[in-house]
Amino acid sequence: TKKKTELDLQLNKDQLKASIVRHLRSTLGTSEQKASPQAWWKATAAAVNEQVYERLTRTQQTHFNKDTRAIHYFSAEFLMGRLTSNNLHNLSLYSVCEEALRELGLELTDLCEQEPDMALGNGGLGRLAACFIDSLATLNYPAVGYGLHYEHGLFRQEIQDGRQIERPDSWREYGNPWEICRPESVQEIPLYGYVETVFGDKGGLKKVWHAGRKIKGVPWDIPVVGFGGHTVNILRLWESRASEFFDWDVFNAGGYVDSQAEKAQAETISKVLYPNDETDAGKELRLIQQYFFCACSIKDIMRRYKRVHGSDFSNFAAQIAIQLNDTHPTVAIPELMRVLVDEEDLNWDAAWTICYQVFSYTNHTLLPEALEKWSVNLFEKVLPRHLEIIYEINARFLGDLVEAKWPGDDVIKAKLSIIEEGEVRKVRMGNLCVIGSAKVNGVAEIHSKLVKEDLFPEFAALWPDKMCNVTNGVTPRRWLLACNPELAALYDEVVGKEWPLQLDKLRGVVKFADDKAFQQQFMTIKRHNKEKLVKVIKAETGIEVDANAIFDIQIKRLHEYKRQQLNLIHIMALYRRLLANPDYDMHPRVFIFGSKAAPGYKLAKDIIYAINKLAERVNNDTRIQGKLKVVFMPNYRVSLAEKMIPAADVSEQISTAGYEASGTGNMKLALNGAITIGTLDGANIEIVEEAGAEHCAIFGLNVDEVKALKARGYNPYDFYYANSELKAVLDWFDTDYFTPGKPGELSSIKRSLLEGGDPYLTLADFAAYSEAHQLVDSWYRDPALWAKKAIINSATMGKFNSDRSIQDYVERIWKLERCKVG
Ligand code: 26V
User: N6-(pyridoxal phosphate)lysine-modified residues are where (predicted)?
Assistant: First the structure.
């Protein structure tokens, strides 16, 4: 029979409508009269899935038939957000579906609100993984995302009396229409136990790992629909379950646990996402999570490889590429060695040659507290065989490579060793990653330079070609087409409809940046987006804000290095100026924050509290005539970002230079026409290169100046005493001005900035930051000037398409071929 063509696959409005109603009845078991919005949403998703599955099957058949090389993206986090509108856009079904639902008396945008976010990530690193799998499918690259099927994603944030409260996130409590369970691909994963040395069949010694426990890994597949709908790849997430097989002999030696506890323990592994971002707690469960998903994924890859190639591993490195998204999946390296050597009987050298060709590693942070280290004792308990393998890798590396390059140099050996010697011996996952990977990349030019020069200088000397850069990007399908439909439609008109695939096409808009009519269209759209956000702010917080004000937005995880506290003290300074002089000349501003703090990060939570207390005081102070408003949006997440970003006038990217590896929110905000107020850090530097320095408000110390100031010995008191406004603002924290009757509730912030030494140089950058804000304010008063800058920012962000990032990965690291499906 003739294969269906693309056109046969494309549904028209009536077919889609019929399909939705059919699913409402036969899949959801309800009727048009009774159905809840949630049932309508699920019926719509089911109708869309008919399209998705057809393409998924074709993609899998094509990849199998052509036996293509594929990239396997290993990540502990995939921050997918919602999928309905994304899938509809990528299948070119969005407006068809909109019309079909209208005829049924429903609004698609309302139904989309029924979908819980898939919040299986903390922040930048997890969202990057989600953008990357979108781009991989869009560019028709064979790719699989591998991760964990957390029952609870990142906590839901409530604000009570100004403080963050964490509530469990139950994204799949009522079922998720996008995931498919694949019982046929279940895996069994060993843990704990001991290693025995035995005589192998072919003579010589062999290692046998007798596991103390076995856990079942159940895969759930999320189809990843490329834009244009040709390739549908999968994101495969592993859920842990108790295994029915159980080694009682081994286990009894360690003690008896009843089977209920057994089951609960097994299910704990994929129960919840660790809510830390940039601080490593070194917890046993997290190591087990990492091993669990890596081991499941390696087994899955092996099974697929052996189905075609049997036990001939000579093609393995040509077929399989694995990208490690930070060090979280590093244990995949010794796991692949274990499988090849212990289970497939390869000799060490053959196995190692395969291994280091297969893996590559992306570094996402230089913060020392984020660099993963596991105690040797914990490692030995959970993964005894892997520790032996790590020792072997280390011995060969130090004995051969390091000794040859730096003969007799024990200082360098100690520094490069995978094992950190000290009171507690530790396994350094970063070093293992570098040693076991073909390529190591940073995520923006400046960051990659620092990875090479400051973090891993000796490794760079040893392997000059190993270190490279791939600047991050974001998918323009979600972060412009779907979230900002009016601007997307304007761009369609002006530069044609190719820009969602070729974002560089937006450069064609630059020539209209001075055009009055175009400026007006552009700013009218911004205005509409702001008006929509005004309603969301009112609904979520009760705060009334005016769309005439400048919307100044800082959205990102709460961390001292990201310096929400700098924004905070500057708002306090503005407030003081307004109180001192009610005619103080400034355009009305709304400062809007969205941010979650790690539950154990005390100071970060205090900063959230301070923002909320400041907001209460400022928003209710009639003396300042509504010139200043402060809004803290609770529960910042992907779906909220999609509403905030199109409404931003100003984008706050104010990290201490050298600390923000890249940032990706900076790209999304600029793409939607916000003007960046930022430091020369991460990808801000490249944003300024693209947009032109005159269209951004850059301030503060650069990386070299930060290093120099720290080397000289930074003393925050110098700035405190030299700047009377700054001093007054900091002293305010000790009063009860913002916390009536409770003086000192905000003092921890002042303390961290003075006694605490202000490690992120907040006070050093304060004056420059304040000036940058004045500059921005003056720009805004000239509507034509502002419109021009906003347009140019948006139009020049083509470089930050995640398709470009993926193409860089393909050329510099993965060496993949595109595979046409259809
Ligand atoms: C560390 C840990 C430590 C253990 C607990 C769980 C956990 C989760 C995440 C992390 C590291 C997070 C690193 C990270 O998110 N880096 C961000 O990566 C973005 C994408 O490359 C980049 O844009 C941001 O600048 C960078 O901070």
Answer: 668
